[in-house]
Amino acid sequence: MRTFIITLLALAPSAIAVPAVDIVHFDRLHALMQPTAEELKWRKIPWRTSLWQARIDAAAAGKPIYLWEMDGHPLGCT
Amino acid sequence: MSSFSNPDIISVLRENFIPATDNDWFNRRRQDAAGKFFRSVAAQGPRKGNGTKQGHYILTASGKLLGFNNNRSLDRRKKFIREALEKWHALPASEREPAAIKVTALGTGQVDKKYHASPPAGGIVLVASARVLKTGSTARLEICSADDLEQGWGHMAAVDRMWIRREEWQSLISAAESRGEVPQRLAYRLLRYQLVDFTRGEPPHWKREEVRHFTMKIMPAEKSGHYVIKGTALMASAADPATAKRGFEINLLGKIETDTSGKPLRFDLVALGDHWGDGPYTKGSRPGRTPLGISLHLGNPDNPIDLIRPQGSRWLQGYWEAEKH
After folding, report:
1. Helix B33-42 to helix A51-61 angle, to the nearest 10 degrees?
2. Considering only A40-44, B39-43, B171-175, B191-195, which range has the smallest mean pLDDT?
3. What separation in angstroms does the CA of B184 have from each of A55, B130, B181, B195?
4. ipTM
């Protein structure tokens, strides 16, 4: 039964009313989900991805550390 | 717009600071020098105790807290930075001069392995981007603006990563050559930990039993070394999707290209579907079923940002063995 259901879903994606992903539109759809240039402006800041590495660099450079901490990495999923 | 897109903030951080980001969930738990250092800094401000220590800190390399802020207001963030810089310049030169303080890298034997992980040696890192979508005037899917969402945010692409071990990559290509199923371990990792709505923060990942059904096949494409992944899946918080408070029903398509040695040159994947519901930390989903897209591509192994560990890997064994736990 499970195989039957899966086969149906695979053969008829439109029947489950879910947007299709086809080869023709693949590249456009893939790009659609990527961050835009506006959304990537934060990358102009040379973020270190660990506090300890920042500590090493700050000590060497004689600069203070700006630290952004989140439950989940701030440059990832927070 | 994030304050980190503001030109004044970008400029002041580039010129005056060593900017850093890190994961509070790990840092407040890890029992090593890095964890102790972070907790000692946080304890100088309002984030005392064992709870969350999320926020923005300005500190010295020696561990002196110069300021704390946890407010999104651009003006308040600028004021916080300005005041902390004034405190920095008031410090004695012995604390501010380059190399006045010595800090060395932590060796592999010095880090708390329970809360520290690196991408698998010889493996693959994929970068995942998730975005809420809308159907445009020409019936094409389009990106949303802040105005399209009731809370006025959550419209931007959110980013996570997926880790694949070398032997898993090899098993994937072996499956492709025989026009078979994507190995269960990889399929479950993708479905449970990457194909979630992480556009508004930390999502609840799908439990194994919440992957209600799926099919995910991989097969060779026309050109040598080219492969295609095709699949469908339903993840739902209840067996009956009509009553499930949260769910994601998707179609997915992937394109893989390898060089003659079998090394990946391209690993693009699109999962597109209708999502509904939210989680304790991701409130504010749109009502009903609405389009959500997630795409993945190869990360750059030389970019530390691409090497940040996946959000779903807090329990690393569970992440690796996604088909079991």
Report:
1. 80
2. A40-44
3. 41, 23, 8, 15
4. 0.90
Helix H or strand E segment including B108? none
Q: Which residues contact B287 (CB under 8 A, 6 or more apart)?
A: none
Question: Which one, of B37, B100, B27, B86, lies nearest residue B64 by Cα?
Answer: B37
pLDDT of residue B130: 96
Tell me if B126 sits within 8 A of B119, measured CB to CB: no
3-state helix/strand/coil string of B238-258: CCCCCCCCCEEEEEEEEEEEE
Mean pLDDT of chain B: 94
Which CA distances in Å does A5 have to A8, B175, B232? 5, 23, 11
Contact B248, B197 (CB under 8 A): yes
Q: Are B284 and B277 in contact (CB under 8 A)?
A: no
**Reported confidence tier of residue A17, pLDDT bands at 50, 70, 90:** low
Distance CA A39, CA B152 (A): 15
**B217 vs B229: CA distance, rounded Å:** 6
Four-residue CA torsion sign, B249, B136, B268, B287: negative
Say if residues B149 and B132 touch (Cβ distance below 8 Å).
Answer: yes
Q: How far is A54 from chain B (nearest CA, A)?
A: 6
Nearest CB neighbour to A47, from listed B20, B143, B249: B20
User: What residues pair up with A67 in beta bridges, in sequence order?
Assistant: B20, B57
A56 interaction partners in chain B (CB closer than 8 Å): 61, 103-105
B7-16 helix and B74-89 helix, angle to the nearest 10 degrees: 20
Using a CB-CB cut-off of 8 Å, the residues of chain B touching A19 are 141, 251, 272-274, 291
Report the alpha-carbon distance of residue B167 to residue B169 in Å, rounded: 5
Evaluate whether B267 touches B227 at the Cβ level (below 8 Å). Answer: no
